[in-house]
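Section 3.1: Structural characterization of target chains.
Under the original work plan, the team committed to producing a structural model for every single-chain target entering the pipeline before any wet-lab resources were allocated. The record below documents one such target. The sequence was received from the expression subgroup and is listed exactly as submitted; it comprises 208 residues.
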Amino acid sequence: MAEAAKSGATPLEGDGKRILMILGTPKTDSLCHALGEAYAQGARREGHVVRQLKLGELQFDPVLRGGYDHNQNLEPDLLEAQRQIHWAEHLVFVYPVWWGGLPALLKGFFDRVFLPGFAFRYRDHGRSQLWDKLLTGRTADLLVTLDTPRWYFRWIYGAPAHRQMVRTILGFCGIKTQRLTEFSPVRPSSEAQRQNWLRHAEQLGGRA
């Protein structure tokens, strides 16, 4: 089992919020990692307990090969991820937008982990399309990096990655997005701009 599932845990848990940070990039070192660390520092300063899952370090097949029609045994790292999600009161997703959407590794994580019976359950009422949201009660912050300018991503592209995360993944399972913060555009940004972003991420952690 990857040690990433346990990294960042505070030995003694007090009255602070239980926070699970999921770094949804296959890279092992990136702006996303720096933003995540800054957020965690701000949250810990306020007495919250922060644990991390670094998807790039976990061992699992990101392809849901048979859909929901076939059972695909969860790898140990994914079983641990489910335990950590149940433990958490607040989730923090830190990831880049690639091709207007989520990185394949993050999408594969959702496909494999947010399964019927864990994240949601369809109600068996004939043709009813109703479902139970099994992760209700949790909140989420999204820290998202983009090369595309924010206005262009929102007004020209329609912000597809944001809609997918907030509405059709997290919202579908009962997780309420608290804040979605964009850090953009990354590619032409200066060192001073990135330092400002890190300070902002730290402030967000302090308000978790």
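Residues 191-206 form the longest helix (16 residues).
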